[in-house]
Amino acid sequence: RSKALVRLGWVCLYEGNQPRAAGLARAAVSEGGTELSTYAEGESCLTAALFMMGEDLEHAALGATRAADLGKRSGDRLRQNDGLILRGVVDSLRGVPGWEASLRAAEDQGEAAAGWRVHGWPSALRATAGLWTDDHVASIDTFRRLIAEAIERGDEVSVPELQAHLAVAEFLAGRWEAA
Questions:
Q1: Residue 56 burial (CB < 10 Å; 0-12/13-18/19+)?
Q2: Residue 58 to residue 77: CA distance in whole angstroms
Q3: Cβ 141 vs Cβ 105: under 8 Å
């Protein structure tokens, strides 16, 4: 049941219904007898939903930390990586000093630890954080590289998200026509 709730939560999140995603993720992590990796994924889903809503970012940061810890304890590097990445991105938005340490820890595991979807790689989330930390030019270069990588891999899911972030980075850098 927990796995199904988490999957539905991700579907709602990607469909733009973050409040519903958060509710489903909360239900998943409250289920008894949940596998650690499923619990970690539920925490990641909840963290992502709270982050996207811009609500309760302190709780989102704690959830990301729990996801990373549960992923590590269960031996699920993908879940551990998700938690580390989310913690870094949430902390960057909150202006927490040292937010890059979580992203570095995820990067140290290698891109493969983040799964095959390029938009979930640590470098993609570091570039996303660059949108609000005024690192626009570096973000542009990273998004271009990642779009090429996603196309090469046949990762059609990542391309639109990366292109949208590239357009925002181009806009913020004052490159109007490129945006």
A1: middle
A2: 24
A3: no
* H or E stretch covering 7: helix 2-14
Give the N- to C-terminal CA distance of the chain in Å, as an integer: 43
Residue bearing tokens 């005024």: 134
Percent of residues in the chain assigned helix, strand, coil, to nearest 5: 75, 0, 25
Interatomic CA distance for residues 169 and 139, integer angstroms? 7
User: Alpha-carbon distance 151 to 145, whole Å?
Assistant: 10
Inter-residue contact 103 to 88 (CB < 8 Å):
yes
| Tokens (6 digits) for 45 | 């889903």
Number of other CB atoms surrounding residue 136 within 10 Å:
20
The pTM for the full model equals 0.85
Query: DSSP readout, 150-171?
Result: HHHHT-TTHHHHHHHHHHHHHH
Q: Which amino acid is at 1?
A: R
**Angle of helix 36-53 relative to helix 77-94, nearest 10 degrees?**
20
**Model confidence pLDDT, tens digit, residues 108-160:** 988 778 777 888 888 998 899 888 888 899 999 999 999 999 999 999 989 99
